[in-house]
TrEMBL record:
<dbReference type="InterPro" id="IPR029510">
    <property type="entry name" value="Ald_DH_CS_GLU"/>
</dbReference>
<dbReference type="InterPro" id="IPR016161">
    <property type="entry name" value="Ald_DH/histidinol_DH"/>
</dbReference>
<feature type="active site">
    <location>
        <position position="91"/>
    </location>
</feature>
<feature type="domain" description="Aldehyde dehydrogenase">
    <location>
        <begin position="13"/>
        <end position="314"/>
    </location>
</feature>
<dbReference type="InterPro" id="IPR044638">
    <property type="entry name" value="ALDH7A1-like"/>
</dbReference>
<comment type="similarity">
    <text>Belongs to the aldehyde dehydrogenase family.</text>
</comment>
<comment type="subunit">
    <text>Homotetramer.</text>
</comment>
<dbReference type="InterPro" id="IPR016162">
    <property type="entry name" value="Ald_DH_N"/>
</dbReference>
<keyword id="KW-0520">NAD</keyword>
<dbReference type="Pfam" id="PF00171">
    <property type="entry name" value="Aldedh"/>
</dbReference>
<dbReference type="InterPro" id="IPR016163">
    <property type="entry name" value="Ald_DH_C"/>
</dbReference>
<dbReference type="GO" id="GO:0004029">
    <property type="term" value="F:aldehyde dehydrogenase (NAD+) activity"/>
</dbReference>
<dbReference type="InterPro" id="IPR015590">
    <property type="entry name" value="Aldehyde_DH_dom"/>
</dbReference>
<keyword id="KW-0560">Oxidoreductase</keyword>
<protein>
    <recommendedName>
        <fullName>aldehyde dehydrogenase (NAD(+))</fullName>
        <ecNumber>1.2.1.3</ecNumber>
    </recommendedName>
</protein>
Amino acid sequence: MGITTDRFMHHRKGAPTTPLITIAMTEIVAEVLEKNNLPGAIFTAFCGGAEIGQAIAKDTRIPLVSFTGSTKVGLMVQQTVSERFGKCLLELSGNNAIVIMDDADIPLAVRSVLFAAVGTAGQRCTTCRRLLLHDSIYDSVLEQLIGVYKQVKMGDPLEKGTLLGPLHTHASKEKFEKGMDIIKSQGGKILHGGSAIGSEGNFVQPAIVEISPNADVVKEELFGPVLYVMKFQTLNEAIEINNSVPQGLSSSIFTRKPEVIFKWLGPHGSDCGIVNVNIPTNGAEIGGAFGGEKATGGGREAGSDSWKQYMRRSTCTINYGSELPLAQGINFG
C-alpha cells in the first residue's frame, strides 16, 4: 500500500489469492468516501502478483509504503523503498506466546488459548504459537486443553457452530504437513492432531506439540493451527523464553499477582509491541497501536499516533516584522 505525493490517494494491493476480498473492501471504502462528498477513487485497489508490489515499492511518487506480510518479503520491500529514500511501515510475522502462571485463572486461560491458537485456523499474525506453562500446573492445563481441542467442530465457517475452517490454500496445507515433519525431526512430540484431513478442502487437525524452546522450528512462524507447549519454573525463565524468538508482535500472561503483572509490562518484561494480561494474544487490540518489534518490523497501525506515520512533518517559521531574526541571536552585518 502507498500514498502518492501530489494529492491524497491510497493504493491497496491485496493478496493475489483473495481478489474478491480486495474488490469488496474497495467498494465499501469508496461508498463511505462518496457519502462524505469525497471521490471514491481516492482509494484504489490492484489485483495481481508480486510484480505490482515491486512496482509500488520502486515508485518514487509513493513516499510511504505500508506492508503487511512475512518478515522475508518485508525486508525486501524495506530495502527497495529505502534505496529511493522512501518510508516503510511494516507489520510482519508474529511468534506469539501465552504464559500461564501457577496462580492463574485456569478455566479462563484455557478458553483464551483455544481461541488464540485455533481461531481462524491459526492464520492470524497474532495467533498464539507458543504456550508457556508453569511446571506445577503443566499436566493439569495440558489435559484440559487437549480435552477442549477434541471438542472443536471443523467444517464450513459459514455454518453455525463451526470453530475451525480450512487453511487458506492447498499450498498452506502442504506447508503444514511439511512443518509437522520438521517438528518431529527436531524432537517435537505430537500430543494432539497434526494431520491433514483427506477429504475435499484444505482442512487440517489443529496440533498441540511438546517441544524444547531452543528447537530451530520454534523460532519460525508456521502459519497454521500449531501450538508449541513448553515448561518453565520462574517468571524470569518465562520472560526469557518469550523474548527468545526473532519476532516481537504479541504476548500475554495469565496471573493474579500485581508484582508479576508490572514486571511483565515493564522494561524487563515482554519485548513485544502488544503486551497483554489475562486476555489472549489476539482479538483485543482494536483501537490500540497495532504492531511489533524486532523482526515484526516496528511499524504501528491504528492507535493514537499511527496517523503521524502517514504525514509529512514540516517545521514552519513566519516573520511578521521588519527585523531579521537570525539563528542563535547572531549579529551578521
